[in-house]
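Database export, one record per block. Field names are fixed; values are copied verbatim from the stored entry.
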Amino acid sequence: MEISYSKITAYLRCPRQFELKYVKKVDYLVSPYLYLGGSVHEAIAWAYRLKMDGETPSIDGLRSIFGQYWDSYKFLEDEEEPREVNWGDENPNDLREAGQMLVSLYWQKIAPYVQPIDVEVPFRRDFGGITLVGKIDLITGTGKLVDLKTKKRAFSDAELARELQPSLYALGMGAQGDIEFDFHTMVKTKNPYVAVASTRRTSSELSWIARELLPRVARAIESGIFPPNPINFLCTPDCDVWHWCKGG
């Protein structure tokens, strides 16, 4: 079985959502904030590649590249078919401007202190018949793994502590001991800002994920039992698959 961070979290959040997205593959629309995050990510990855080649991207150049990605980007999740966006009450032009501001802030406030050695690094690692796949956004000169995040609010300490992505990505890259992981977070609020959220995972935590979580989630998926989770605070009409689950 092939599994990823997105699929694992989707299953743990709501098995019914996982079924509709990844088993039945319903033609759902994605959130405008996922679209924003994808476009921001692509623009910053472009800039870091130039930096690795010894060039210095300008803020105007980065904003322009973001605009190009925004105008052409089709959100992909786990390399599935391109998804269209459910804009709802959001104004695409306002979000486009917000994205340009976020990439500008990031390149001014965080990027000068980062020396990348690799960008968008894919991994594929087997755990007893379970293949964990994914892609690291950034690896720094100190060997730290980094993920770029666009959010409506910054991580709380509790959210950061229980976030699965650092552990899964470290395992995917073959980590054996304790690891440090950074989220470079671009927060879209009335006054946008950027921040670095650092966290640490111990070797025993990684071992538990590999020994307990991965095989149990894989067995649960293979069982074909996908109950809805109506007590999840995300179970609202804003869910990507609400129409197929509770809206019909």
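Remark 1: The chain has two domains: 23-113, 116-226.
Remark 2: The CA atoms of residues 123 and 134 lie 5 Å apart.
End of record.
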